[in-house]
Amino acid sequence: MVLLTRSSRSRRRVLRDALLAGAVLAALALPGLAGGAEAAPRTDLVVGMPVEPPGLDPTSAAPTVIGQVVWQNVFQGLTRIDRDGKVQPQLAKSWTVSPDGLTYTFALQPGVKFHNGEPFTAETAKFALDAIRAPGSVNPQKALYAVIADVKAPDPQTLVLTLSKSSGNLLFWLGQPAAVMVEPKSRDGLKSNPVGTGPFRFASWRKGDRVELTRNPDYWDAARKVHLDKVTFRFIGDPQAAAAALRAGDVDAFPLLPAPELYAAFQKDKAFTAEPGLTEMKVVAGMNNAAKPFSDKRVRQALMMAVDRKLLIEGAYSGYGAAIGSHYTPNDPGYKDLTGVYPYDPKKAKALLAEAGYAKGLTFNFKSPQMAYATRTAEILQAMFSEVGVTMNIVPTEFPAKWVQEVMRDRAFDMTVIAHAEPMDIAIYANDPYYFGYKNPAFNDVVAKAAASTDEAARLKLYGEAQEILAEDVPALFLFVLPKLSVWRAKLTGFWKNEPVPSNDLTEVRWTE
Amino acid sequence: MTALAKVSGASFRLRRPGRAALLVGGILTAVLVGVALLSLVWTPEDPARMRILQKLKGPLVSGLLGTDHLGRDVASMLMRGAFNSLTTAFAAVGLGAVLGTLAGVAAAARAGFDAVLMRICDALFALPPILSAIMLGALLGPGALTAIVAIGVFMIPVFARVTRGAAMQIWARDYIMAARMAGKGTARITLEHVLPNIAGQVIVQVTIQLAMAILTEAGLSFLGLGLPPPAPTWGRMLAESQTYMLQAPHLALAPGLAIAAAVLGLNLLGDGLAARLDPRRRQAS
């Protein structure tokens, strides 16, 4: 500054211009410098999520957002589900199943260490599985693992599971976030300090803002090279802010953009990859099958025919997502497209309602959670039902606390809507009690047989039958599968397009330049 | 208001803004009430009718003000929304005005009441209205009644204070003394002399509180605690327009401007009426 005041005016201008030019050059060069002199790809990543997990232990709480941070990144299981929904070996490198389907013998990966240095052995695996099945266990998917009668660790690299009855999906369930391997010393603190065997270690958690992970230098799986050194999960609830953070480069990827109406702009933008995939979230309007008017199957079928699913998806989710006719998604093996069983047909719907004794119409309450997809679905259903003479009163109901109490516990409702997030959860319609209040012994029989069947083809055929029974009985209005509206920088690769398990597996993610 | 009242009498020129306010406020309010009433018999479209394939159309492309994210006609929703807003606001202010005025005149008449009532009012004043309304909404469940009660309850102390102050001034007048000597009881004096003389101030307060009530109702609807769908409300229209701000700005502008115009109109009307009806100002000029 002192120098400048002394110099002549023109020199000052020259100097100023030179300084400006220098600053511009530096600004232009900086991102390049940050990426490394040889333009080596970046090794850090910021992932945005709309909801912050309440804790980081997927074995002790249900919210799927927990798994979306830690599953596959920090924690791993005996098996894993890959991006196509297929079961792959992980900490168990291979297995054999006895002919009666009751004994599973796993050969475990040698040389695996937890992030705290503890070795992973058959004893640890036994500890983890026993903890899930223990009487006081709070594991959210406890019921899935109830068929395991006994776990034995005859030697450090061998694990033997004995089942009480055969279970065709056991290997799939063992690959779920709820069945990840944990070890005794760190187990009590997992909620705030997750310790697993994955490619990333937990580094820090700033509540309300972000979780940071760093690369695990002692990662066991040499076959799957990990490219990222540092991963940050940022929690941004407001959809507008999420979109702005992506554009500003504060966030590199948003695997589940919360507002579909903002998605089209990213699809047009060459700086981003935005290909809509499918999640496992089945949006269904559950009805109280145990009470009037929905105890009458004809009423449920009539309302199903009053719904134009395509138009509903257009209105509620900007046209993204897939229509479903039963409680199964196109991601799931053995999926059957049953949207044609009760297609949109308001005339038939009216006739069927009249046959059921509601020629003059019908009025009922609809408990609507506050999520955008739910409130929009509610309003659209209301309009579609009014076309067939049905009056639906919308009662906004706060989710989760109030909704869980009134719908799940008290079952004081007529109709509601919610997205069921768990993959392959068609068996919930056999649960008794469950909020649908649906009782069909034939269905329960098929589902039980399917679960016990170890023959893949036979099992899928049975699950097909189960889907058909539900499509015919309509215990809930089967509406659509939520899309996975993912956005990431075009230079990133390795993300999952679909989401057969709620997750953000970053093992294969890398920058291409 | 009080600052205005002090100076408005001081010069002749300052009376004119009062008139202009009355005029502009009166017109805006008349349009608001007119549109609200009209919506009962006629709207361009059924405000609840969805034409999802016609969604997010701009103004004049489909209807006067375009369509929303579900293909509903924004102009029709705005009209019916005016009715819903106004009825909720009227009911809430009615509740507050009746109970508040009763409390106010009772307090002015009896010193014993005064101490208790005014402390209750102080306590109510200390609660932030929107937050308390949200709490009430959570307790009672959302709906029209909740909105009315939530807004109305917090208007009671406002009216109680205004009427108490005004009524106390009346009680100090000579004609009250005369009425007393004529053998009239407290209740009769309140009814025959106090209430008629403070009516003007209550009306002014009603107008201003109506503006507040419309704003609060919009806030509650915005948060999902107002009238349930399909009844259109300005607050919910605003809430739903949020994520469409870049794609379809008319969705946010329409209800936003409607709320602003309604609140402005009622406030101006209130100020204009105050200049005419408030005895303090009337006497000064």
From TrEMBL, chain A:
Q: Where in the cell is it found?
A: Periplasm
**What is an annotated GO biological process for this record, any one?**
peptide transport
Keyword terms, alphabetized = Signal
- The principal localisation class reads periplasm
Residue ranges constituting the Solute-binding protein family domain according to the UniProt record: 86-419
Q: Which PROSITE patterns match?
A: TAT (PS51318)
Q: Which domain of life is it from?
A: Bacteria
Entries under CDD domains matching the protein: PBP2_NikA_DppA_OppA_like_6
GO molecular function terms here?
peptide transmembrane transporter activity
Q: Which SUPFAM superfamilies match?
A: Periplasmic binding protein-like II (SSF53850)
Q: What is this protein called?
A: ABC transporter substrate-binding protein
Output the Pfam families linked to this UniProt entry: SBP_bac_5
The UniProt similarity line reads: Belongs to the bacterial solute-binding protein 5 family.
Q: Which GO terms describe its cellular component?
A: ATP-binding cassette (ABC) transporter complex; outer membrane-bounded periplasmic space
Automatic annotation (TrEMBL), chain B:
Q: Does the keyword Zinc apply?
A: no
- One cellular component GO annotation, for this chain's record? plasma membrane
Entry's Gene Ontology BP terms: transmembrane transport
The membrane topology noted for this protein in its Swiss-Prot or TrEMBL record is: Multi-pass membrane protein
Q: Per the UniProt record, which residue ranges are transmembrane?
A: 20-42, 86-109, 116-138, 144-163, 210-231, 251-275
Q: Which domain of life is it from?
A: Bacteria
Where found? Cell membrane
Q: Which UniProt keywords apply?
A: Cell membrane, Membrane, Transmembrane, Transmembrane helix, Transport
Name the principal localization, coarsely classed: membrane
SUPFAM superfamilies from the entry?
Answer: MetI-like (SSF161098)
- The chain positions of domain ABC transmembrane type-1 read 82-270
Q: Which PANTHER family match?
A: OLIGOPEPTIDE TRANSPORT SYSTEM PERMEASE PROTEIN APPC (PTHR43386), PEPTIDE ABC TRANSPORTER PERMEASE PROTEIN (PTHR43386:SF25)
The Swiss-Prot or TrEMBL record describes its family as follows:
Belongs to the binding-protein-dependent transport system permease family.
Q: What is this protein called?
A: Peptide ABC transporter permease
